[in-house]
Amino acid sequence: MEKIERDVVIVGAGATGLTAAHRLQQAGKSVLVLEARDRIGGRLWTDHIDGQLYEIGGQWVSPDQTALIDMLDELGLDTYSRYREGESVYVSPDGTAHRFTGDIFPAGATTEAELERLIGVLDGLVAEIDPAAPWEHPRASEFDHISFTLWLEQQSDDAEARDNIALFIADAMLTKPAHSFSLLQALLMAASAGSFSHLVDADFILDKRVVGGLQQVPLALGERVGAENVLLGRPVRRIEWSETAAPGTPGAVRVLTDELEVTAGHVIVAVPPNLYNRIEYAPNLPRLRQQLQQHQSLGLVIKVHATYPTPFWRAAGLSGTAFSPYQLVHEAYDNTNFGEEQGTLVGFVSDEKADAVFRLPAEERKRRILTSLAAYYGPEALSPTVYYESDWAAEEWTQGAYAASFDLGGLTRYGALQLEPVGPIRFGSSDLAAEGYQHVDGAIRVGARLAAEILAESPAAQ
Question: Which DSSP string do the residues of 118-137 spell out, in sequence order?
Fold first, then answer.
């Protein structure tokens, strides 16, 4: 077995791990990044499917994501605005498609007023939440022990208003049923984006894309870190760490793959929390850390890509933006790539709806998904030239999307603990971010934070 020594080992070549590696290298530390996949990028993946370029993973950039925007500037990557001219579409409970402009769905004056009221209530609560420590809110325990569904039922008798408010958090973000997570988890999701109103505003939260795909961020970071320091196809099997040696001490940690033994002063495990237990730890992680990992889980979503000879919806005066909690595809957008003449739609099927269609044969699942797109855009949506489903739950080294969240009561019970190191071991990913939670912006912030913490512990900094 080959033996290597480094100052810091990083497990995972996604945006978090590579940001940390790059910042550590800039400070003069030697690093080695070990990636289980055969590619760089983690949950960012831009690839060609039947000749069509698709962003299979994350893709959007919003104005509040300043860490990502700064990184794009640092790497020299260009962005372009998502197409948004024309009217949006909302499908009501009876299946009728309604065209509209603005953020509030055309659901009748009473329901629209209730939507506005609930958004105001949530914005007020979100303004009280520190996304870095939501468990410190005076009512954190109360908010963490009531499901988002039950809280909405206590707030309003208007079922359509409740369904649409839930869509912004449950379907569109956490990709879990609203009864399965707490009000506090919902408030954290909104606080990480600046407000609940930001989640409602598609033109804000889904503002821009990167020319050529967002995976270029980790790819460019990987180039800067150096191919010799980023090893692919090397799943980490075991981390041996010392309970007595000070973090940063040479040999404080030993990281093993099937082919390598790497000794270092620190290790960063930069993978989703649901994968922590794919690694054996010696000694075992503390009992509460093991318990913590059993109360976090990823959601489930199918990202649907459908390309057509032209963006036909534009000629019909539609922006491509479409929503409905009553459709299989709960949201969809114009996702046409920069400079292309053909048109691409992207849609999403999440949580229990995804459960149901995954039980179907692939062709029947495709038929139902395209039928749902046609409810928004008309029969032309039924016949794409290229069709693809991003299924991150089937990815061995991800197993869900978009990010991990806690079950009821988990955020107050374990939230602060997830940020603490275990000896020379630090854990981090976009799943643990404050601002930019579950986004690339959050991944970059966490990577930079972990690097800074390690540098602060280094002998030169003391």
Answer: HHHHHHHHHTT--TT-GGGS
Angle between helices 148-155 and 159-166 (to 10 degrees): 150
User: How many other CB atoms are found less than 10 A from the CB of residue 373?
Assistant: 22
Domains of the chain as residue ranges with CATH:
2-42+215-285+422-461 (3.50.50.60), 46-57+79-84+205-210+300-394 (3.90.660.10), 106-199 (1.10.405.10)
Give 127-152 pLDDT, tens digit per residue.
999 999 999 999 999 999 999 999 99
Query: What is the spatial distance between Cα 68 and Cα 77, in angstroms, rounded to a whole number?
Result: 11
Going by DSSP bridges, is the β-strand pair 208-210/60-61 parallel, antiparallel, or unpaired? antiparallel
Q: Give the integer Cα–Cα distance in Å for 420 and 314.
A: 49
H/E stretch holding 116 reads helix 109-126
Residue 460's pLDDT is: 54
pLDDT tens-digit map of 204-215:
999 999 999 999
Q: Residue-wise over 64-88: b if at least 16 C-beta within 10 A, else e?
A: bbebbbebbeebebebeebbeebeb
Q: Which backbone phi and psi does 305 adopt, to 5 degrees? A: -115, 130
Residue 220 has which token pair?
């460019």
What's the rounded mean pLDDT across residues 174-180? 97
pTM score over 0.85: yes
Amino acid present at 44: L
User: Do 425 and 419 meet the contact criterion of CB atoms below 8 Å apart?
Assistant: no
DSSP alpha helix (H) spans, 378-422: 410-414
Residue 166: which residues within 8 A CB-CB, separation 6 or more?
148, 149, 152, 178, 325
28-63 pLDDT tens trace = 999 999 999 999 999 999 999 999 999 999 999 999
How far, in Å, CA of 13 to CA of 2, rounded?
21
The helix (run of H) or strand (run of E) holding residue 184 is helix 183-192
Beta bridge partners of 405: 297
Spell out the SS3 assignment of 18-83: HHHHHHHHHCCCCEEEECCCCCCCCCCCEEEECCEEEECCCCEECCCCHHHHHHHHHHCCCEEECC
Cis peptide before 376 (omega within 30 of 0): no
